[in-house]
Design brief:
Oligomer: single chain
Strand content: under 5%
Mean pLDDT: 86
Radius of gyration: 28 Å
Shape: rod-shaped
Helix content: 55-70%
Distance between the termini: 54 Å
Amino acid sequence: MQLPIVKDSELAAISRLEPAEALRRMESRPEGLSREQADTRLETFGPNNVSKEDKPTILNELWGRLSNPLNALLLILAIVSWVLGDIRAAIVILTMVILAVATAFI
């Protein structure tokens, strides 16, 4: 028995079909698959599990918040202020970046 192989691009088209035609295309029926059909598809395709993305680590989350273009611009501005001798401005700008990253993270 040849199982229906459906590509992701075909699923949208199948979803727009009339129910009877969609069932025929997927080689199914309103009552569902028989035990033999289900076992065969399980062996062929594996379990029908929804894939999950791994949760990002704390360091990945912090890097994602810190790599914001505005934060990068502010960090460059803080470095320029430090080099030019305006230590107070550099500290204020750095504090702004730290607070922005911390509040976004929390």
